[in-house]
Amino acid sequence: MLVGFDRSDDAGVYRLTDELALVQTVDFFTPVVDDPYQFGLIAAANSLSDVYAMGGRPLCAMNIVTFPAGKMDIGILREVLRGGLDKLREAGVALVGGHSVTDPELKYGLSVTGVVHPDRIWTNEGARPGDRLVLTKPLGTGIVNTAIKAGEASAAAIDEVVASMVRLNRDAASVAARFGVRACTDVTGFGLVGHSDEMIRGTGIGLRIDAAALPSFAEAREHAAMGFLPGGLQRNRDHWKATMHAAAGVDPFSIDLVCDPQTSGGLLMAIDPTVADALLAAMRHLDVPAVAIGEFTADPKERIDLR
Ligand code: CO
Ligand code: CO
Ligand code: CO
Asked: Mind listing the domains of the chain with CATH numbers?
């Protein structure tokens, strides 16, 4: 076993030969949007992301479904699965099976199997002081999804957040592979704060995040001001309050963004500062909205300074 449970990485990695290792991950959740087809697309993009976050290439996948049989129209499930399959096709991944159980709530996701060269695994450990922290999607999916559930998001806001959640992290990963990655993960339920903490925990380095550089969806600030903060945001804020230090005068909205749980969020990468600008330009060339949002530091250690 090359990557296991110990550092809460995105996927498990198991060596098959000197040239080949298996990457395995599983993820499923309740709907985040009303449209069942879009939910299928999002769930698949999210499940595949953990393979990309390891530097891997996904090959095959299996559906995991819970469904309130007899209480919900089976056509809804069909649309969810069609979304998942379309996203797998786009990724060039084969659906090889699956399993469903009857449950009071619809839940959907996939287990994904991929491959990676054992010498080119991106774990969440390996950042060095001076490395840039690069994020490849805007933040705020939790906030905007909460506003959507309350019926308060505009059609434009829904389109923007759905387009981001359905997007594969494949392009971002392929650009990053060309330039080199010191450490990588993807931003999901623990938010930027939790997943960036995974990159510094136990490593003796720290992180400085530039609040003004944080990318967000156009209406996220407005939705946050209206109080559409998901429960996970407050849990993340409480859980990492000893790790994250916000400087005096930091915009409170940037603290919300850092703690907001993401669904199918972007890749979060430690990049050698000498190649960071070229990497960002190459990302933009593929319409990946990647930005440098901070820098790893020698001091203070194992702390995230937001300023
Ligand atoms: Co992950
Ligand atoms: Co995951
Ligand atoms: Co990783």
From this structure: 12-120 (3.30.1330.10), 132-306 (3.90.650.10)
Q: Which ligand is nearest to the CA of 24?
A: 2
For residue 248, the CA-to-ligand 2 centroid distance in Å is 34
Q: What is the pLDDT of residues 86-119, one digit of tens each?
A: 999 999 999 999 999 999 999 999 999 999 999 9
Quote the pTM value: 0.96
The pLDDT tens digits for 269-299 are 999 999 999 999 999 999 999 999 999 999 9
3-state secondary structure of 228: coil
The closest ligand to the CA of 195 turns out to be 1
Report CA(65)–ligand 3 centroid distance (Å).
26
Cα separation, 265 vs 42, whole angstroms: 10
DSSP state string for 47-96 = HHHHHHTTT-EEEEEEEEEEE-TTTS-HHHHHHHHHHHHHHHHHHT-EEE
